[in-house]
Amino acid sequence: MSSSLSGRTVLVTGATTGIGHQTARLLAERGATVLLHGRTAEEAHAAADRLITLSDVPAERLCAHGADFARLEEVEQLAQQILAKHPRLDVLVNNAGMAAPERHTTTGDGHEIAFQVNFLAHYLLTHLLEPALTADPGGRVVNVSSSLHRTGSIQWNDVNRTKRYSRLAAYAQSQLALTVFAADPRVTAVSVHPGVCVTSLLPLYAHEGGAPAEGAAHVVRLCDPAVEIVNGAYYDRDRRVPPAAVAAEPRSVRRLAKLADSLVGQTV
User: Fold this and answer.
1) Is the pLDDT of residue 192 over 80?
2) Which listed residue, of 28, 71, 105, 155, carries a Cα 20 to 30 Å from 8's Cα?
3) Is this structure's pTM higher than 0.90?
């Protein structure tokens, strides 16, 4: 079966488990070269081996990369490796995510951990990979967000939530930031809520959910250059719906970019 994804290069962050892993599988099965990112190189290689063994995906279509998103230095190293090996990147899937911990936790970089892993690391990675992200029609960033972004608010003066911390509020803030980022005019990007699936994040949503492959199918659809996208659009599974109001406010989009630039030390 010929596919419009054939011959395209896609980086999927958080590709070792859950929706990210199934997204990598579906993309590779449809002919894409998939760069699988895991928290460590060992986890990423193990995930690639599983796909080769269980899914009949040719080994040459998979490249494994490791980077701990709780360390921005490792995000920078990941971007350097990818730019060196893959000077052309068609799609970046910002999928890696974590539930915020019960107790307020700060990374070595000084940021609340869910805000860094779920948003800041992806923000930094996206901008560092800009030279490789193709400007051709169909080139795009797909942010795997969450319906919970609607319950969130960005605490502009206390983004690390040092004054009042709740794990749900911290998680929702990180997902809202990722959704707002899709509307940044510097990138061609969309966000998608892939549905409630049985992954490590399920307890945040419900007691039961669909198979990760169901959620992954909605992500892969948006990676396909045959699917036209509008910058900043938000999808609930396969339906385009309005995101939270803040994600459509140009002032908030600019304010978040300025904040994120200062937090990750970028002068973009």
Assistant:
1) yes
2) 71
3) yes
